[in-house]
Amino acid sequence: MAGEVASLLTSSVWRGSGVEQGDGAPVLLIPGFLAGDESLFMMSRWLRRIGYRTYGSGIRSNIGCSEKAIGELEEKVIELSDRHGRPVSIIGHSRGGMFGRVLAVRNPDRVDRVITLGSPLVASMEDIHGLVRFQIRGVQRAQRLGARSLIAGGCEESWNAYRFGLEPVGCCTDFWTDMDDRLPTRVGFASLYSRSDGVIHWRACLDPQARHVEVASSHCGMGVNRDVYEQVAELMTGRIVASVRPLRAA
Asked: CA of 176: how far to CAs of 31, 122, 188, 245, in Å?
C-alpha cells in the first residue's frame, strides 16, 4: 500500500492533470469494514481538486448493523441532494460500496451514480479472506459481551437467511433484499475490482447490473491507487453503461 501511495503522489493524476474534471457535483464517500472516513481522506481531497464537492459518511469505524447504518446514511443523502438541488454521487470502498448500492435502490431520484471499490456485491463468505471473517466474528463476540452499535446476532441471522434462501429474519432483512434488487437504469453503477485484491475475490465484485472495470490495486490500497483514481475520474462524467462481460482497464 505504501508503494501505491508513493505512485499516486508523484503522478500527474494526483495533481489533477490529464483527468476528467468535475462540475461541482456532490459526492458522498463511504469507507469499508473496520475503517472510517479518514481512510478515504486522500480521495476526498483529490476529488475536490478536480472539481467535486465531497462529504464524509460520518462513520468512524464501519462495524455496525447494516440496516442502522443505511438509515443514517439515507438522511445524509436526502440532506445533500436537497442542499445542492441535484442527485448525489456515491463512492464506496468494500462494505461502503454495498451501502451505496442499497442507498441507490431506496433513493433512485436522489442518487446519480454509485462507484464501488473492491466491494463484495455478489459474495458468499468464502469469497472473503479468512482474516476478515475472523474479524467479523470478533466484532460479534464483542457485541455479545456488551459492546454497543456493532454487527450483532440479528445481522448474522439476516445474512444466513438471505444466503440460504430461508424465511427472512433479523434486523438486516431489508438490507439484503435490497442488495438483490435491481437499480433503475437512470442510476449509473460501476464496480472496480482487482485480481490482486487479496481480501475480496474479484468475481464477488461483478454485480450483473454494473459496469465492471479492472484495476491493479490491493484491497486496502483502493483509496490511494493511481489506477483507481484515473478510472474514478472517467466514471464520474458521462453515462455509465453496464458490462456484458468484465472489462480490463487500459
From this structure: 19, 11, 20, 24
